Amino acid sequence: MAGAFGFKGCQKIRGAQIRGLLEAKDFFLFDCDGVIWHGENAITGAAKVVNALIRRGKNVVFVTNNSTRPRENYVNKFTRLGFTDVMLDQIFSSSYCSALYLRDVVKVRGQVFVIGCEGLRMELLEAGIPCVEETDDPDATIYNCALAPDVKAVLVGHDDKLTFLKLAKASCYLRDPECLFLATDNDPFHPLSGGRILPGSGSLTAALEVASGRKATVIGKPSRFMFECISSQFRGVDPAQCLMVGDRLETDMLFGSNCGLDTMLTLTGVSQIEEAQEYRNSDLTTNHSYVPDYVVDTIADFLPAFEDMEEQND
Ligand SMILES: O=C(O)COP(=O)(O)O
Ligand SMILES: [Mg+2]
To answer: Out of 6, 51, 132, 186, which could bridge 202 as a Cys pair, Cβ 3.0 to 4.6 Å?
Structure first.
């Protein structure tokens, strides 16, 4: 897919080309982990870029598959890391969008069984969606535990306190075909320092898919639903005016393609340019949806373009 400037995918761009892109787009969607920050550390220059875009009147939103924190937590994190003007309504997390999906699309009537962190439960409760209480009985097993009545959905997100009992309970609830099976995202893993990895929600969902014999509906990237949330909150967004900036081909770039957005891969996160070139050279046309229109080493590559624009305006 060629971007607005006719570039073939995987083209590294900088300077004047980035400036052209900044002038042509008015809606910027940023992935967080691997683009804006790594864990608790901002990527060098990221705050300056985001602050400059907002100062120039561009729309900036953040689309993160991380389901572990409530949005307020992100506002504090952005402030802590030097992003001066990020507001709650610019943050679209897979937990917040899962709550919107259950409230506004499913209009769920009944309880939701959650496999996930406290941040996911908080977003659901904030949206008025009752969650099945977690048991703290150390002797509870699937043979003797109580199962809640009227569970109308099972929602799986990143859960670093996953237990066999939680998986077993979810499998029982999913025996009811009326009970929806949802996942906040399908990320398989998250790289950690020292070559370690953290299993993602996708690995927990896969376990439940095998146990239940059912397939989950994924709310987060690469599904289009997060863009639908953004579009309805900003009263209609023109995909042609958007640029999706991410670090992962199979979630961020595919999300952008699925929503008809131009896409930019930054090489500060999970995916490398060689992987993107492999997808581009693939005979399988479905693989071309993973190919970014543009590639930059880091979003800090935007900074010289702002300086050019300033000089031009002086
Ligand atoms: O940390 C994660 O779950 C991934 O988050 P991201 O979508 O912001 O990269
Ligand atoms: Mg990321």
So the answer is: 186
